[in-house]
Design goal:
129 residues; alpha+beta; four-stranded antiparallel sheet; 3 helices
Length: 129
């Protein structure tokens, strides 16, 4: 199962996180009880943690002991969902773990993409603050 985690991290997370300036810190930590991948950038760090015994997957920012979470999705434009779906088209997940990691990667990419875009008022003219 550890190889599924490392392959999924490299396939689903690394390509788009590199676009946001994150690099995978090697090596990933793999044990029978915990799988862990850390990504770092000049502005912070992000982690993907999985506990196979509990079947618990967690993606967050900062320390894995903190409660930091990726930005929440609110008022996501339909175009953003479509673009995100297109980005992941063709990536297949066969195991339950791979399916969870693919879903987490899709969600994270969408959250980062939306968070990186300036908010626009309903009239489309002025940015919200």
């Amino acid at each position: 199962m550890g190889h599924e985690f490392t392959n999924a991290i490299r396939t689903y997370f690394v390509p788009f996180l590199e676009e946001y300036g994150f690099a995978l810190s090697e090596p990933m930590a793999i044990s029978g009880k915990h799988y862990f991948a850390r990504f770092t950038s000049g502005t912070g760090e992000l982690f993907v943690s999985y506990e196979p015994g509990e079947d618990y997957l967690h993606v967050g920012f900062g320390s894995p002991l903190s409660e930091n979470r990726p930005p929440e999705l609110t008022d996501v434009p339909v175009e953003a969902y479509r673009e995100n779906t297109d980005y992941f088209a063709g990536r297949e997940a066969t195991s339950d773990l791979e399916k969870k990691l693919l879903k987490a990667a899709r969600d994270l990419r969408l959250r980062l993409r939306v968070a990186a875009q300036p908010a626009v008022a309903a009239d489309g003219a002025s940015p919200r603050r």
